[in-house]
Design goal:
Length: about 210
């Protein structure tokens, strides 16, 4: 208890600064909570595919997935996030998400988004995990990203090239695809200031009309 008391007294600002510190703490806490709300940070704890289109640059990938057979049986996380244990899953999800949010926030994303080396390994693992009954009698079940890099095997999508996102990949690859409209981030009590947002259920990617 004495150590905690010493730490508390050490962190306590001088009396003439306390009001300023309280006000600044409130401002920074409010900004932090606003960022969490606007970025829909809590949605990344789920496996819902709609989470991926929090970033509009993912619209073409969401659209191609939604029209593929995989959309009936698998979410984005089923393929792109490790599924072998809880710790690895959320560590990968957090580190990958932090990199994505940094690139998308500073608009560093390329016109053609390419999966990184770590992601390739995870997707290959998940292909084999889901389709084990089809490959367990062949040497394909042993192929990893490192083996493929060394020319000792092929990745699943080197043959299954259209699965599930197709071979044409860019930010403008699916200009007429319908995607879910994201809910507004404007609180209802602020709508009078910025105008009432359009709440129609579906929209298309930029530059096209809404779905009937």
């Amino acid at each position: 208890m004495k150590a905690l008391k010493k730490l508390f007294l050490f962190l306590m600002p001088p009396e003439n600064w306390r009001l300023t510190v309280i006000i600044l703490s409130g401002i920074f806490t409010g900004i932090f909570l606003l960022v969490v709300h606007i970025s829909k940070a809590t949605s990344y704890l789920s496996d819902e595919p709609e989470t991926c289109i929090n970033c509009h640059v993912m619209y073409p990938h969401y659209a191609s997935w939604s029209k593929s057979s995989h959309s009936e049986v698998a979410t984005c996380s089923d393929c792109h996030v490790p599924q072998d244990n809880f710790v690895r899953k959320y560590y990968f999800k957090g580190s990958d998400g932090l990199r994505h949010s940094t690139w998308f926030t500073f608009r560093w994303e390329p016109q053609v988004i390419q999966i990184k080396s770590a992601g390739i390994g995870v997707v290959q693992e998940n292909c084999i995990r889901c389709h084990l009954d089809l490959v367990d009698m062949t040497q394909l079940v042993e192929v990893t990203r490192k083996m493929a890099d060394a020319g000792e095997g092929k990745l699943c999508w080197e043959c299954h090239r259209e699965t599930p996102h197709g071979t044409v990949k860019s930010l403008s690859a699916a200009p007429h695809a319908l995607v879910e409209r994201l809910p507004t981030v404007v609180p209802s009590w602020l709508e009078w200031l910025v105008g009432s947002p359009d709440r129609s259920p579906k929209v298309q990617t930029p530059g096209i009309s809404e779905m009937d």
